[in-house]
Design brief:
19% strand; alpha/beta; 6-stranded mixed beta sheet; 8-stranded mixed beta sheet; globular
Length: 467
């Protein structure tokens, strides 16, 4: 991190003067209108001009002490007695500012960034388990939550806003965390949420098409992922089987060394509690390569592999001796969905009667993948129960219609919009020698309908049905 940049120094002096303090504390600042505002300074960057007037008026009525913005706005929006500082430098350098305010909480920490289309959260959890087994304290920022592993607090973000990031970094610093593992989403990278963080290691799980509703083009999506690699100082682990390896190399400029991994590794004979899917073979291979880079012996690696546990919502098997075998997985992209169903089909098909799949697709997201996922379900399953995922603002029936276009054998289809009813139906129709795959939501705790969140967890609900 750069220290004492003139723009940041001037901003801090402004804050000291209006707060009448010798040192600015994180508790003196707020970054969102939902936070308590009395006597605080409101900092706004990358805001929309559309509602800035109401935003400032609302905060002024709540007695903010001052306002910091990253660009000039009309004076009519600002009360005459409200101190205002315009810092254009801040919009792309928020992390430098927060690093100084929090007194450089990342100093001395090993920082690992994980990006990719599929498998980010899984490898983060498996890496955290690995380092914990090696006696390290690990801080995590991920889709599944933030905190010191394994005690994580739920979050609505994959890669949070800078102020939330640094709040967590400060906790990690105070709790003497050794390693911080960050999940770097394409949107978070594109929005600059991780700028000026120096990563020791970065990992690319794979890059396939996703989030094109946000990025518009595939190249833009890939470039966003590569921002992480350009911030990496030491080593980058890249999946050799990723179809975009050469494109990544062409648009990446980094002093870090590239190491490649695939689905194979050089130790044999160990046992693992993880499903032997292609994705888990990549995960174990990656961990093996990271540990070998750190000079960990094969004997220790085998011991770690035998103690790794499945992650909630990822390849979870729920099975009772007198019922079908249920597999719950977060697979919601085309590649992850196909990887899971293909593995189940190849591994179990001769030993079972039916493969039953329960899934849907998210609303207000990439619509092209819906028909493709229908084709995958059609190819690898006997019964397809189409249901809601997170319909958001879209008509749920339209989403299911889009998916069903890919299912040529319409006799396979059962449509049940209510996800609980769909899971209950899968339990009712399944037999002892069947496999039921419930895909898309993993360990998520809600379903999003327009602006409402309905409480629901696939794992908990399934267990309540078959217990």
């Amino acid at each position: 991190m750069k220290k004492n940049h003139p723009e940041i120094k001037n901003l801090i002096e402004f804050l000291k003067s209006i707060l009448n303090k010798k040192r600015v504390m994180p508790s003196d600042l707020i970054f969102h209108s939902d936070e308590g505002q009395i006597g605080k300074v409101l900092i706004l960057t990358n805001f929309s001009n559309y509602n800035i007037n109401n935003y400032i008026k609302s905060s002024y009525k709540k007695n903010i002490r001052g306002l910091v913005i990253d660009r000039e706005i009309s004076k009519k929006h600002i009360p005459n007695d409200l101190p205002v500082y315009v810092c254009k430098y801040l919009s792309n350098n928020m992390n430098l500012f927060l690093s100084e305010i929090y007194d450089y909480p990342l100093k001395g920490k090993k920082i690992i960034g994980v990006t990719g289309t599929d498998g980010k959260t899984s490898i983060i959890h498996l890496l955290a388990q690995t380092y914990k087994l090696l006696g390290k304290r690990v801080g995590i920022i991920s889709t599944d939550g933030n905190g010191i592993y394994p005690k994580l607090k739920k979050t609505i973000y994959t890669t949070p806003r800078s102020d939330i990031l640094y709040r967590n970094f400060n906790i990690f610093h105070k709790k003497s965390v050794d390693i911080i593992i960050l999940e770097a989403s394409s949107q978070g990278l594109h929005q600059g949420r991780l700028l000026h963080i120096n990563f020791d290691i970065s990992i690319v799980t794979n890059i396939t098409k996703d989030h094109l509703d946000y990025h518009k083009t595939y190249l833009s999506y890939i470039k966003s992922k590569c921002i992480l690699l350009n911030m990496t100082r030491k080593i980058i682990f890249l999946n050799k089987d990723c179809k975009n390896v050469q494109r990544i190399l062409n648009i990446t400029s980094t002093p870090a060394k590239f190491y490649y991994y695939d689905s194979s590794y050089k130790i044999h004979g160990h046992k693992t509690k993880l499903l032997d899917t292609r994705s888990n073979r990549y995960n174990l291979s990656l961990i093996y390569n990271i540990l070998k880079y750190s000079n960990i012996s094969d004997k220790v690696i085998i011991s770690i592999f035998e103690r790794l546990r499945p992650i909630p919502g990822r390849n979870n098997i729920i099975h009772r001796s007198d019922s079908a075998k249920f597999i719950i997985d977060y697979a919601h992209t085309r590649d992850a969905f196909e990887c899971l169903l293909k593995y189940i089909h190849e591994t179990y098909y001769k030993k079972i009667n039916n493969i039953i799949v329960v899934f849907g697709c998210g609303g207000d997201r990439d619509q092209i993948k819906r028909e493709e996922m229908g084709k995958i379900a059609n190819k690898y399953s006997d019964i397809v129960i189409l249901t809601n995922d997170n319909p958001r603002g879209e008509n749920p029936e339209k989403i299911i219609t889009d998916i069903s276009k890919g299912i040529t054998n319409k006799c396979k289809i059962v449509k049940m919009l209510n996800r609980k009813n769909a899971i209950k139906h899968s339990v009712k129709i399944s037999k002892k020698n069947d496999i039921v795959v419930i895909a898309g939501k993993g360990n998520e705790d809600s379903i999003i309908y327009k602006k409402k969140k309905i409480k629901h967890n696939d794992i908990d609900y399934l267990k309540s049905l078959i217990s």
